[in-house]
Amino acid sequence: MKDCIFCKIVKGESPSRVRGETKNVIAFDSIAPVSEHHILLVPKKHFGTFLDIKKGHRDLFMEMAKLAQELIKKNKISGGYRLVVNGGKYQAIDHFHWHLLGGKLEDEADIVNKT
Questions:
Q1: Under CATH, which number does the domain 5-21+30-109 receive?
Q2: Cα dihedral 38, 71, 5, 59 sign
């Protein structure tokens, strides 16, 4: 997609701190972190939302999961992390992605911490 910031990062047209990469997935630091470790895992192919992922994309999901596991181990956050997908009004960038959150959270009072 022409104006998608994540597509620009994938193409190397916009700067980012890449934390990991596979054939179909790139992982980089969030520019608006909400935790000590806030890494975005992004498919290199543009998908607008989670709802655009179909049955045939199972291998992509597994590739994302494997990269997430590697990043959890590499960053030593296995003692406390979250893998989050935002959708609808909670999705800020129109390109499907996961948030890997680990370490100290910016907002310890967050309702998600209490569930």
A1: 3.30.428.10
A2: negative
